[in-house]
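User: I've been going back and forth on whether these two constructs are worth ordering. Before I decide, could you fold them both?

Assistant: Sure. I'll take them in the order you sent them. The first construct and its structure tokens:
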Amino acid sequence: MTAPSPGPPFTTRWVVAPLYAAGFVTAFGAHSIAANLGAYTHDQHASLLALGVLLAVYDGAEVVLKPVFGALTDRVGPRPVLLGGLIAFAGFSVAFVLAANPTLVGLARLGQGAAAAAFSPAAGVLVARLAPPRTHGRAFGGYGMFKSLGYTAGPLLGGALVTLGGFPVLFTTLGLLAITVAIWAGVAVPAAAPLPRDRQTVADLARRLSGRGFLAPTVSLAATTGALAVGVGFLPLRGAAAGLNPLQTGIAVSMLAAACALVQPFAGHARDTARLTDAAGMAGGLGLSAAGLTIAALLPGLPGLLAGELVIGIGVGLATPLGFAALAAHADPGRLGQTMGAAEVGRELGDAGGPLLVAALGTVATLTGGLLGLAVLLAAAGVTISCVPTPPAAPSNLEPHGPSTKT
């Protein structure tokens, strides 16, 4: 069987490639810094509370601002928001280096999170606008793959850069990366003017965000993101408790990230060729993620950890591109930015909620109970998504390969 290309056809790939790079920037930027904050706070003699705040400010800025920038994307068009967010990300990174004050890392990270809240949903909108609808599965599969590569490379390359020259070298690298992607996007990504929109009331917004076309993919994205966060954060802890060394647990986490990255283009290709429906893919991904958590909870030692991480990665990789493709298919084209921004908030909440749920259940019923509890919720969400009828796709007036006109 011929492997699918990690994205849309070649004729479209040039214009979406910088969007994939933007996804890499936000993932790499978030994780490269986060992975080194523990050592930073130790050197600064900061408290655990300070570490928690530094870890949270990036995601906190995204949760608050992604809906705002998503709505702005619909109003002014996604390209200016994308470019402005990337330039701002570079600016905050370079400003930290020029300030030469390590205590400002929290402020710099807050600024980076706010900038990512702008260019991340704008990139998702542009993927949907510039790739033909028949290739949305592959387009979002490629986008998700590059974000996963950013999550994977962040701790490794970030640690190497900090070892080489501390946080100034890391932030300089992030600034150069972001401005390079901004220039590339400025050259390669065509203008995509705002699409016509009907007037919207608060009741209209609530009805749209509570409909199955939005709710099902957002729940799927949030739940699988929660499983991913638990796989990265809690399963190594379980491995350490079983006597595994850091190399063994690191290999297991790398397997999760690699599986998640590699599966997404295949899942998107299967969707585009009508071999996999959005509902079946999302439900299957949730079921596999639940199975992975169950395996890791019940099968002891390295075999359970490796198998659990691998199955979780496959499940997340299966559900993620189909979730985004389903959002694009059912969203009002004129409010795609608002839809993507709101869905990204769901992902951020899942990223935080999954570990919090496992921690709460684990406090009462051991870590095994916490993992099994999350697995039950994921399985229930998958069954619900598979049983509820899929609504018809929204009429699409997205125009690939060029700008749209506003009437």
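The second construct, handled the same way:
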Amino acid sequence: MSTIPEPARPWRPEDGPGAEVWTWPYGDRPALEVWSAGRWRYASVMARQNWADGSVRYQVEVALRGDTMVTVRTYQCPQPGLRKGRASGSEPSRAADEGYRKMPRRA
């Protein structure tokens, strides 16, 4: 049986240089699956963080209880309780994807 993954702590100045952050287009994000409340939960990847020490962390949106309450968590990979869920067909980018936040223009 898988165990519930531990969220990663935030970056601190004593960790060295800041992380290299990669994002995907909002409509084509990859996903992880997170073991929570006895089931694998779909977790859409918001960003991948490559830390200076070589570790990798994924910032995800996930409904940990299987309800409609989606939370943002960051997990260091690999660890028990996390597995690959879905690949993206898009290349990641170092630029923030803010396109989904824009309001449509009025005619």
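Notes on the second construct follow. DSSP finds no helices and six strands in the chain. The chain has a mean pLDDT of 89.
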